[in-house]
Design a protein that fits this description.
- It contains 13 helices and 13 strands.
- By secondary structure, the chain is an alpha/beta fold.
- Strand 5 and strand 6 form a beta hairpin.
- The radius of gyration is 19 Å and the shape is globular.
- The protein starts with a helix and ends in a 15-residue tail after the last helix.
- The chain binds flavin mononucleotide.
- Flavin mononucleotide binds next to strand 4, strand 6, strand 11 and helix 12.
Length: about 375
């Protein structure tokens, strides 16, 4: 399937504007998602044997998740499950609905297996997302895999009111999702990344943890895991400061896209690299792995890490896992490798485990020899 995708389907898709094709695909998958029979049919192609993992109190059928930003408004979650993903992170969702930045705002760098985007949290807002997901659930059409939600600050909310903005989204969506990822690392909302500063982050986490406790008591159900998603452009000192708050979080998602660009001698590539936005895909791979290693070492493996950045194959996923990631996510890899990416990674990981004589994927976390 992945051969067919790369030789025939991908060139056709790549002849269109990236955002147009993205919207077309998401619409098609949202139609599939509303029909169990179609999801079942897709599952026949793309599902794989379980490779169970547990993290922050949740059970995952396999460690390969879909990264935030692909299904911003949670319209196609059943389709992602049928595509073999072990979990999905929807969003980013903001309290206020917003259109995001002016188009064009997504650019492919095919030669480098990369993307630059400056979407700017285009989404339908927390209320509408809650309505849509509740409807899916009421129709008995929701999924068994864990579904997390990436929450961002609304653009119109000033930075000093960020904590309340996150809190409103958190409260509206609390019942509906299995875990929350606080996004303070997107380069595409002005000044958002300043919220990675320890005092700002502490403020947001205090408010969210208080709301979490309150909602837990009100609804008599367990607290929701809260994770932080960080940028790959933070210094190690700044990451250490985030890690000082580790008692207030259930895990870290490492990493978001980068504002840095690699050297290139190719003028065509250089022209796209000059675009404003976050770079993802292959050029991000090593940087995000370095950060995962750093976090794993600093926390002695005690804080679960979702590793994301430049994962295309089982070997890439293995590198992230052995560097300290309990779970991994794919975004750009899905665009370049196609719909069998999750299955291929899970099956490839199974082969690597067999070769290495390791029974359980969790036993591979952090075993890299250069850690
Ligand atoms: C078009 C696009 C939109 C994205 N939107 C979000 C987002 O809303 N929230 C977020 O936390 N990350 C977002 N990301 C970042 C991805 O979730 C991921 O962290 C990053 O792309 C690195 O992984 P990759 O190399 O597998 O793409 C987006 C990435 C892309 C390419």
């Amino acid at each position: 399937m992945s051969g067919l995708y790369k030789t025939l389907i991908r060139p056709a898709l790549f002849s269109f504007d990236p955002e147009r094709i993205h919207n077309f695909t998401i619409n098609a998958l949202s139609i599939v998602s509303r029909r169990k029979i179609l999801c079942g049919f897709m599952g026949e192609f793309f599902s794989s044997e379980p490779m169970p993992v547990e993290a922050f109190g949740l059970k995952f059928p396999n460690p390969v998740g879909l990264g935030a930003g692909m299904d911003k408004d949670a319209v196609a979650v059943p389709a992602w499950e049928s595509m073999g993903f072990g979990f999905v992170e929807i969003g980013a969702i903001t309290y206020h609905p917003q259109d995001g930045n002016p188009k064009p705002r997504v650019f492919r760098i095919i030669k480098e297996n990369a993307i630059i985007n400056r979407m700017g949290f285009n989404n339908k807002g927390a209320e509408e997302t809650a309505r849509k997901v509740a409807e899916y659930k009421e129709n008995g059409n929701w999924v068994k895999i864990p579904v997390g939600v990436n929450i961002g600050k609304s653009r119109i909310t000033p930075l000093e009111n960020a904590a309340e903005d996150y809190e409103k989204t958190f409260r509206i969506l609390w019942d509906l999702f299995d875990f929350f990822v606080v996004n303070v690392s997107s380069p595409n909302t002005p000044n958002l990344r300043q919220l990675q500063d320890k005092d700002e982050l502490a403020k947001i986490l205090t408010v969210l943890n208080k709301a979490n406790d309150e909602l837990k008591n009100q609804k008599s159900s367990p607290k929701k895991p809260i994770l932080i998603k960080i940028a790959p452009d933070l210094s190690y000192e700044a990451i250490d400061e985030v890690l000082n708050l580790s008692k207030d979080i259930s895990g870290i998602v490492a990493t978001n896209t980068t504002i840095t660009r690699p050297e290139t001698a190719e003028s065509k590539v250089a022209k796209i690299y000059a675009m404003e936005g976050g770079l993802s895909g292959k050029p991000l791979k090593d940087k995000s792995t370095e950060i995962i290693r750093f976090i794993y070492r600093q926390t002695k493996g005690k804080l679960p890490i979702i590793g994301v950045g430049g994962i295309f194959t089982a070997e890439d996923a293995w590198e992230k896992i052995t560097s300290g990631a309990t779970l991994i996510q794919v975004y750009t890899g899905m665009i370049y490798e196609g719909p069998s990416v999750a299955k291929n990674i899970v099956e490839g990981l199974r082969k690597i485990l067999e070769k290495e004589g390791i029974r359980d994927i969790s036993d591979a976390v952090g075993i890299h020899k250069n850690l």
